[in-house]
Amino acid sequence: MIGIDLTGRTAIVTGSSQGLGLATAKLLYEAGANVVINDFDEGRGVNAKKAAEAAESMGGQGLAHLADVRDLAAMDRLADQVIERFGSFDILVNNAGILRDKTAKKMLPEDWQSVIDTNLTGVFHGCKVATGKMANGGRIVNLASISAIIGFFGQANYAAAKAGVIGLTKVMSKELASRQITVNAVAPGVVLTEMGKSIPEESRKVMLSQIPLNRFGNPEEIAQVILFLCSPLASYMTGQTLHVNGGWWG
Predict the structure, then answer these.
(1) Three-class HEC string of the chain
(2) Which of 70, 73, 223 is nearest to 161 (CA)?
(3) Which pLDDT tens digits describe the chain residue by residue (250 residues)?
(4) Measured between alpha carbons, how far is residue 37 from residues 98, 127, 221, 228 in Å?
(5) Torsion region of 33: left, alpha or beta (phi above 0 gives left; psi -120 to 50 gives alpha)
(6) Which amino acids are annotated catalytic?
(7) Of 11, 21, 37, 78, which one is least surrounded by beta carbons within 10 A?
(8) CATH fold for the domain made of 10-237
């Protein structure tokens, strides 16, 4: 029987106080990794509380750390503290993301910029920090989206950011290859996390009719693919985008 054992490896999962990020963090923990639950606090303390609870459930293998992915210095400090606590930084899952859907006509400049800053620049910040602080042989997994491929109505900002993530992944895979650090992306279809559930019901019905497997994904199914990319089983895969979408191609 082939198992995935990440004992002794340390993973940072951004945006992991809930949803897909939390499902990924839990799976990496179950595989034996030390896991850093990262999110940023919007002033209400909700993310901080969720992150603390998730980390506490992992005992000595868990650490909650608030750091805004839009802030390069904050991400740099996060990596330093992770290395100080666990001794290494081996896995990065760039998961943090937001939605600000509007048609281009109605989209305000701040709607555009906030999504680009979080969903694309935030991924770059994580990758940039990893170039100096990740251990050789590490793993980076960036979250893209089916929106980057199909281009959903009202998602000019989100689709552009996620398409940028795919391009960034290819570049980083080349720049880090000499250190045997692999960089891949996962592009989920619609997953019924808090973000997925925010899609209007009528829109979801239309989307569902286009998915050959006739259902939406769940966070654990996406997390399992991320776990594979973080494992030795994917040691010769880099620069790739894995589409996990139930066969949905528009």
Answers:
(1) CCCCCCCCCEEEECCCCCHHHHHHHHHHHHCCCEEEEEECCCCCCHHHHHHHHHHHCCHHHEEEEECCCCCHHHHHHHHHHHHHHHCCCCEEEECCCCCCCECCCCCCHHHHHHHHHHHHHHHHHHHHHHHHHCCCCCEEEEECCCHHHHCCCCEHHHHHHHHHHHHHHHHHHHHCHHHCCEEEEEEECCECCHHHHCCCHHHHHHHHCCCCCCCCECHHHHHHHHHHHHCHHHCCCCCCEEEECCCCCC
(2) 70
(3) 788 999 999 999 999 999 999 999 999 999 999 999 999 876 557 788 999 999 999 999 999 999 999 999 999 999 999 999 999 999 999 999 999 999 999 999 999 999 999 999 999 999 999 999 999 999 999 999 999 999 999 999 999 999 999 999 999 999 999 999 999 999 999 998 877 777 788 888 888 999 999 999 999 999 999 999 999 999 999 999 999 999 998 6
(4) 17, 17, 19, 19
(5) beta
(6) 158
(7) 78
(8) Rossmann fold (3.40.50)
Beta pairing class for 62-66 and 182-188: unpaired
Amino acid letter, residue 123: V
